[in-house]
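Question (not urgent): is this output format expected?
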Amino acid sequence: MSVSSGSGREMNCFGVTNGNERVPIIVYDSAQECLEAYLGCPLEQAGSMEGYNSKGIRYSYSPEEALERIKKKRCWGFCSDKEALHLWKDESCDVGTFIELIAHERGHMCRPHHRSQDLEEIKANQYGEIARFAYEVGLHVQECYAAKAES
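Got this back:
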């Protein structure tokens, strides 16, 4: 993993190599900074935020509503032009949820890219669900080995 300093609102910018592909990762200090990077402007200047939720249902929120919803999730991110991951994580967010978010966003970067936003969201959700499953199985197996070693 290579590390380089971020600029502007970015807390840290680094790249993770996945095979031959370097994936830039940009981590933000706050949910608002991450959302403003997504919107491309300060919240006060933004219009409504539209997209698809995790169930593939279309939504439309004011920037303030979107920010409150993001804060309740405790982590949020997006991928820009299917090339870089932009992430924010609250200290109270558990690792499994954050791993699921990262995998979901990375799923958007993987081919095939679906023309249908519904299908694209379903694809990305599958990446997140698989990552969460693998993480939880890994934890369980680790606990089993630890318990066996104690007995």
